[in-house]
Amino acid sequence: MKSGRTTLSKFVIENTRDQRADLGALLIDVAAAIKTISGMVAKGALGGNLGAIDSTNIQGEVQKKLDVLTNEAMLHHCEWGGQLAGMASEEMDEPYAIPADYPKGRYLLIFDPLDGSSNSDVNVSVGTIFSVITKEGKDDTGMQDYLQPGQRQVAAGYAIYGPSTMLVLTVGSGTHGFTLDRDSGNFILTHPDIRVPEETREFAINTSNERFWEPPVQRYISECRAGKTGIRGTDFNMRWIASFVAEVHRILIRGGIFMYPKDNKDPSKPGRLRLLYEANPMAMIIEQAGGLASTGRERIQSIHPDQLHQRVPVILGSRQEVERLEKYHQEADAGLDKSYVSPLFSSRSIFRD
Length: 353
Ligand code: MN
Ligand code: MN
Description:
Helix content: 25-40%
Structural class: alpha+beta
Strand content: 15-25%
Low-confidence stretches: 341-353
Radius of gyration: 20 Å
Bound molecules: manganese (II) ion
């Protein structure tokens, strides 16, 4: 069996022969960073790296030691190889310029080095999310180069640091999962051509925000919760890990719908997740696996970004469920949703802006 195993290196070399060998080399460096991060995360309290440091990132979030260390691991593994024109990260206000002593390339790497890091102290699965786009033009790299819609991604992926470490990757021809073999140090292709099941009986949403949701989301969730007795005619289960990578991974493997929808909790934030390094790469991964990723009103990968750290509503997963929730948004926006009176929100809140 062993001789027939496909390593990540073999996979990316074979899938980037078409004038994109530099992309393959970059992805091998990203995988090396992920192995380093996997080791850091696995040490837990023994590594001395749990807990917060005395700083916040551009989002105003308290940075954990591991946020900073994993960000440095990504930068240092990927800056030297000559494939990149620059990098941007959740943990850095501004894009990172490739140091002058290294050659530069045509790609931009955008990442969340440690997704779900508030979970690292409680030993729940965390991850790394990354997106690769091509820099247009020959000028020096500037902020504008990063502000491209997700449909221009040439590769995207995530690592999940769970009981096993997995790297899930797309280079635009399907979504493929690799498991880290700690004996050989190689990522091995264990989940070729993952397909998101079209139908599902599982939804994932933070219901503590229920009172802030918009009517279409209220409607959708109330129908799921009504189960066999409601119009869906079937019982649903709810899941909420509060780790985006872990939610997306579960949905890829066994189906489901994940929602961090638009809400009116904080009008300055039109969603919770960040477009460029959370929503876009996961949207590409999910859509390459046959699922859908939407804000409820538009395809995530169609959005033209205007800020590096901008947030978007995210609804992704099994095709039929995402389509249903998009339809509920259309009906609500068109005022067609007159038949629906939700038990979850009062008539007062319908008419309140
Ligand atoms: Mn994150
Ligand atoms: Mn993070």
